[in-house]
Amino acid sequence: MDGTAGAIFDDVEIGQDIPTLVKGPMTTAHIMRWSAAMENWHRIHYDWKYATEHDKLPDVMVNGSWKQHVMIQLLSDWVGDTGWAWKVGFQFRGMNVPGDTLTAWGRVTGKQERGAWGVVDLDIGLRDQKGNEGTPGTARVVLPRRGGPPVPYPFDPAVLG
């Protein structure tokens, strides 16, 4: 993080959208760099001929682990230094290829006070430039209450009582 505070539980409303995170347009270089960093040498991420002819895919594929990273970045950017992304779950339902611009989004679906902190539930996802939802999911974050202590690091769910 950059040392900034994040969302405050008291300011969050059910139905509220959190700030989006836009990545792209993706290039084969982006995909290959991520594959190399993760040591994921599956050929569908860098070998166009293999991906299209052998696996019958439309192009090389954006890595699932990269999509996971983007979803966590979305939540981490929103909760800032004082909150915690507690639980995240999503499904890979769509393929993304070079040329795609992907937007991570989140919408508050629930909130509850839990001791000194607040717990916020969200629907989250990753859409392409055509609006196709390829990575739907849910998340639960813990946020500080106004005037309350920051969420401890590392976060222990037992503190929620």
TrEMBL record:
Region (Disordered): 128-148
Annotated InterPro entries: HotDog_dom_sf (IPR029069)
Identification of the protein by name: Acyl dehydratase
Organism: Falsiroseomonas stagni DSM 19981
